[in-house]
């Protein structure tokens, strides 16, 4: 089982938030996906922002969040905007 903190972009703060919504391993994050994890985080922690979503996707893709392809960023931003 992969520890969340061993994934790219996942620091203590995001790890605690993920654990608070029931995601305790990298495999669980991969299974649920960045959008669903973000949605659950947003419901519990309303102050999470688009950067959190990028961070989750970067962790899943094993790249730094600022290196996500523009197309992926646009899709994630659109998803985040739809939640408002």
Automatic annotation (TrEMBL):
Span of the signal peptide: none
Q: Record's Gene3D superfamilies?
A: 5' to 3' exonuclease, C-terminal subdomain
Q: Domain TfoX C-terminal: where?
A: 2-78
The domain of life is Bacteria
- Pfam families given in the database record: TfoX_C (PF04994)
Can you name this protein? TfoX C-terminal domain-containing protein
Organism of origin is: Emergencia timonensis
